[in-house]
Amino acid sequence: MVKRQQLIERYPIPWTEEQVAAFRDTLLAWYDQTGRDLPWRQDQDPYKIWVSEIMLQQTQVATVIPYYYRFIEELPDVAALAQADEDTLLGLWQGLGYYSRVKNMKVAAQQIETDFAGEFPQAYQDLLTLKGIGPYTAGAIASIAFNQAEPAMDGNLIRIVSRLFEIEEDVTLTATQHKIRAYLYQLIDPERPGDFNQALMDMGAMVMTPHQDRPDPHPLKDFDQSYQHQTSHLYPVKKAKLKASKHTYLAYVIQNAAGQFLMRRHTDQELLSGLWHFPLVEQDMVMETVSRGELIDPLWRDFGQDLQALGIKNEALKLLHNRNQYQQTDFNHYGQVKHVFSHRIWQCQLVPLILSPAEEMTDSVNWPEDFIWIDASKLDQIPISTLQKKLLQARLPFDPK
DNA sequence: AAAACGGGGCG
DNA sequence: CGCCCAGTTTT
What we know:
This protein has 401 residues and is α+β, with helices and mostly antiparallel strands. It has two domains: 1-234, Endonuclease III, domain 1 (Orthogonal Bundle), CATH 1.10.340.30; 245-393, Nucleoside Triphosphate Pyrophosphohydrolase (Alpha-Beta Complex), CATH 3.90.79.10. It has 16 helices and ten strands. The strands form three sheets. Strands 1, 4, 6, 8 and 9 form a five-stranded mixed sheet that branches. It has a three-stranded antiparallel sheet with strand order 3-2-10, with no helix packed on it. The longest helix has 18 residues, at 17-34. It is elongated and about 85 Å long. The mean pLDDT is 84. The chain binds a DNA duplex (11 and 11 nucleotides) through residues 57-59, 95-101, 104, 131-137, 154-155, 173-174, 243. It catalyses: Hydrolyzes free adenine bases from 7,8-dihydro-8-oxoguanine:adenine mismatched double-stranded DNA, leaving an apurinic site. Keywords: 4Fe-4S, DNA damage, DNA repair, Glycosidase, Hydrolase, Iron, Iron-sulfur, Metal-binding. This is Adenine DNA glycosylase.
């Protein structure tokens, strides 16, 4: 945990004191006039703040309100929650989702009884020790219930600050969140920290929304760099996460009569280039049952040329057990391997084949350099990828070790 | 620091 | 149905 003073020194806010004061006044004036009047804003009972914050983590305000009333009526304080039985809790939570969180709340209530003598802890660091309370909820309770100048940094506050200052760094990075937290430390109104946080939450939910396509004038526009430049829609900057695309592969485990495996070195154009693998062929759909042809054809389509150059005839490739139809369950028996790259996910289905000795080889004229037959005992002498190691670990009808 | 978790809501 | 969300927990 980086200390507050360290962060402020590392990231001084690029505003004058007058600007900061004007920002607070503008924000709180808007909140006093326009902010939402919500049930848990009636008083500063930390228990009620806590219950509402946990509920709001997962559901919209309108949905939470009836649940909130019911919960508080049934379990009005920490002591009641600490003693509540599981069925009561689940009943009160039914329909909200994330049921483990209400279980965490009961654990936290018991922590309050045992670790804090039943007195709701006030210090941010103490709040963090409670099950289910992380940085956001600890900040919300410390500021709203106990008037401490702690930011409640949720998605709303991150979005607003990133727009105000046009923060170009990826907000998913820890360093960027530190910078935003540092700015919030300097912005938060020490006189009304709870209202300050709730004002920003309301602003984020009602005005400076995520999909703010048309940058309307808004109450904070004079403080909003992204409004001045009409760039609000560009913030917050998030890592262009190439959503990992999913791909299915058949991994052919081909063994000859001598017990050697056929392996292929990936070319420069491929992923994992230079490393040796069982021949892999992408498959765009997985079928319930496949005929021999449906299983062998993809291999032949991609590598038939090479296999012929190796002296392998199509007919010499036999499915294990020599069956014509393969059920999906047969596949499961041979195992699958999942491999995750940063940008793609490969699901590999092992396909064990044997090369029929009787019609095994013809003479090879020009041996393709990218293919070898290799003894299982020598697999550790060639460079292979983690994926290939996983394939070797997968359940096979024969033991490659 | 990154991944796992989690179940309702959404396209 | 599969993906996404937004925080906490776990590794």
